[in-house]
Amino acid sequence: MRINKGSASKVAQILPAYEAFEPALALLRQGDVVAVPTETVYGLAGDATNGTAIARIYEAKGRPRFNPLIAHVSDMDMAMRIGLFDPLSQKLAQTFWPGPLTLVVPLKPDANIHPLATAGLATIALRMPRGFAARLIAAFGHPLAAPSANTSGRISGTSAQAVAADLGGRISLVVDDGATPVGLESTILKVEDGKVRLLRPGGIAAEEIEAALGTRLERGAKGIEAPGMMVSHYAPVAGMRLDVGQVYPGEALLAFGSKRVKGADRAAMLLNLSPLGDLREAASNLFSFMQQLDRTGVSMIAVEPVPMQGLGEAINDRLARAAAPRNGS
């Protein structure tokens, strides 16, 4: 079976997950890429052992090649063939896999991961997803590199329609399994010298991990050690103002909770991440609401404060990167 590759003159086909399995497998076996649903966000998947497939991921996303990719695995056996797991990393995997946790571990010398996927690092970021992606990896037999299915630096896609609107002219197939339940990328951890360091907050709250380990997480990255660590990332076209106390005329408002800031009634558009202040609901809505507000054409999105506890840490991380100064600005 041969499937036509996407090009600028074509639009990606969107297929429901129950129809897309074999077409997705066929594309992967050709060294092509497929946008697939995971529990976090949609990922742009390609064979992590194939340099052509990895290059296509970088090309489709416009992603800097110094920014490494996560290799997604179907089971622990596949993970152990790729990375070296110390006892703490094994405990984390056993506790939170499959799920929205990525572990950065030393890359095995004989691991068949293409060097483009690791961006020259001696480590590999590994995750075991649930659902369609897990079944696809198991059938494919190789790990899949699958960064978020969006143009690099822009808002991550949490629906097939959002992915197609962004990357539709650059890829052939988007697998539609509805809105992603978590809505934020995975939490990334790295174990060093018997301590666990949080490289990126994400879909599992730091407090939940600390409760499972019985110890506090270290914080602070040493450069780009894993995906999603660039200062400017997840950004809309519009600018963003965070932790606002007032909305100015012409701004859209990304709200949170039951109380509104001054001027909210004058917002060009208002979307509330969670009227009841539920951080899990807020996380699942974050990227889709940012996209909706951005599509209004406003030049600025004002964002009400979001608490830092629980998943609020990951939400605030994404908002801070979305609001950061961008290249050339």
UniProtKB/TrEMBL annotation:
Q: Which residues form the YrdC-like domain?
A: 18-204
Species lineage, top-down? Bacteria, Pseudomonadati, Pseudomonadota, Alphaproteobacteria, Hyphomicrobiales
Q: Which reaction does it catalyse?
A: L-threonine + hydrogencarbonate + ATP = L-threonylcarbamoyladenylate + diphosphate + H2O
Please explain the role this protein plays, according to its UniProt record: Required for the formation of a threonylcarbamoyl group on adenosine at position 37 (t(6)A37) in tRNAs that read codons beginning with adenine.
Q: What's a Gene Ontology MF term here?
A: L-threonylcarbamoyladenylate synthase
Source organism of this protein record = Aquamicrobium segne
According to UniProt, the name of this protein is Threonylcarbamoyl-AMP synthase
Q: Which SUPFAM superfamilies match?
A: YrdC/RibB
User: What does the similarity note say?
Assistant: Belongs to the SUA5 family.
Which keywords fit this entry according to its UniProt record? ATP-binding, Cytoplasm, Nucleotide-binding, Nucleotidyltransferase, Transferase, tRNA processing
